[in-house]
């Protein structure tokens, strides 16, 4: 992937790209929360809508869980019917609309309501839901909310949309960049949600990405699938793959660049910009893992091939024992080697070295698969930071991959002990 491209971070999330309007509101799917210091009921957004001024080329990837939420089934069907075209996305939180006998009917109804309100084809609406599995989705609150959402659409309401898809998330997650193609300034922006039930498997959590770059639907899908493999699919919070995972990407072409219709320099630039957005959203998701106190970023370099690097990095961030050690700020590097060793990949373990790094320093703990003496005091200082980097050197090639995760804490159990009730 190219690395010498001028990509600038910008504001706006899903509204950073030209021609995208958004809105979010509270409709009653979420139970209102009450601030003990303020008796007034606090309504948190639980449904959002965002729309392009023109028809977009669209792409998506979905969960590989055999149990799929009704919105996944409906969205996939809509994009097949429309020839991968979309104009609008409607998404709700708190209720996943999964494993319900009327789930598909209600997901279709959500699309129909948007279609009717905006005067667009129903099959050009993407629908998504996240939250509790197996609870019937109330449609009346949504029916009342759609006109409100549509009436309040604005090019600056990305925040209202980003907060509407949050469940156990503690912070909203948005990222956007701008870059140049054919003398035109293009944008890619996205928003994501996810804090638990997160494990790499085709897509992770709900992620929505928009761009004003002109690109064919075939190459849009190719770019999304490829970048998903090295970003969202390299993320794990707890090893559980959600039933409702989806990433959607919409391109409306309003930047004015020549449409990217074949692979080459322009396509490479687009992919690099897309990677910047998706990698940073992935990092945000990892840092906000349920109960997490530390972000884990594992970088495996010197691998004989990309797949081996990915597998090893993912194996480390998925290790329950290692995640617990990081929570305890214990430099138990043997758990790293253990996770590397049971990775299903072909490499020479005797050449592997490991460093642990943070903004407070770096310690080498293993060289050629053998322990190195280090200061426990210094290790404690390094691990006291809230962002920890595991640097694995295979010394067997030139490929590199990164995976993201978080520590495993007491609060993770507390949060999930009564998540449904």
Question: What report would you give on this structure?
Answer:
- 31% of the residues lie in helices and 28% in strands.
- By secondary structure, it is an alpha+beta fold.
- A hairpin with a 2-residue loop joins strand 3 and strand 4.
- Helix 7 packs across helix 9.
- The protein starts with 7 loop residues before the first strand and ends with a helix.
SSE diagram, text form:
Blueprint: E1 8-10, E2 20-25, E3 33-35, E4 38-42, E5 47-62, H1 70-82, E6 85-92, H2 103-118, E7 125-129, H3 140-151, H4 158-164, E8 173-181, E9 184-193, E10 206-211, H5 217-229, E11 246-251, H6 265-287, E12 295-303, H7 306-318, H8 320-327, H9 334-341, E13 353-358, E14 361-367, E15 370-371, H10 376-383, E16 387-393, E17 399-406, H11 410-417
Parallel strand pairs: 6-7, 10-11, 12-16
Antiparallel strand pairs: 1-8, 2-5, 3-4, 5-6, 5-11, 8-9, 9-10, 12-17, 13-14, 13-16, 14-15
